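Exam review. A common question shows you a sequence with its structure tokens and asks you to describe the fold in words. Practice with the pair below. Do the first one on your own.
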Amino acid sequence: MIYLELFCTFFMIGAFTFGGGYAMLPMIQSEVAARWGDKISEQAIVDFVAVSESTPGPFAVNMATYVGTEMGGLFGAFCSTMGVVLPSFIIILIVAKCYEKFRDSSVVKGCMTGLKPAVVGMIAGAVLNVAMTVFFPAGLSLGVLSGAAFYVSLGLFAVMLVLALKKVHPIVIVCLSALAGIIAGYLGIWS
């Protein structure tokens, strides 16, 4: 039954991924490819990463809702969204109840210290995975260097990175990226 599979898959993702939505991205990509890769392409997941970034709400919830909708309609969206949210809800209730008591514990401090670099590594892995799909959609080859889409994507990335480093508001960056993408699509650069 697809609804139970959606709930269990996203419950597992929510329960075993620390660091928020970006840290969940590699696991979401892996699970979706393994379970529903014949129905949801890797390109569709990358496209929805962009949509999830430009819509309100937590990234992981948006991704779970998207996959759930694609696989099981409205009730599928509900099941996958509840699956990804419920572990965090349960864990935060337990942590809130116990944290004050164990905050100064060396075990708790060590656990938090160990989790931080792992989360950064998972986020970096997700960034590289998405970057490969965006810049090299047909795989890593020199042929991609002959198309305008690669250079337009690279230019947009560079401009948006500079704007982000200059602390331009993220909403402005998202709007400018969308506008540039619309213009490039209208001009046929990505067709």
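Now try the second one, then compare your answer with the model answer below.
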Amino acid sequence: MAVKLRLMRMGKKKQPIYRIVAADSRSPRDGRFIEILGTYEPRAEPSKVVLDNSRAVHWLSEGAQPTERVAKLLAGSGAIEEWKSGAPAAAGPVAAPGS
């Protein structure tokens, strides 16, 4: 099973809020997912990202492929650097500056 880290759209019409999820690559955008890793609110000023870095690093180490936007969010939160360095991830959700 190929796992992707991607965004799942939530919220009202013209007011999107996204969940960052680990999902099977064959499932639909807003369909089944394996785990919720965090949220992304692009309309907040500045953009608000809340992400569980330890779980993101876990999924990256298991071979999950992030989408382009999720890769930018992971880089902003520091999860990509933790994964590449192999350092243990900090526990709990981390609020990252918006991108």
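Model answer, second protein: The chain has one domain: 3-97. The two ends are 30 Å apart (CA to CA). Full marks require stating both points clearly.
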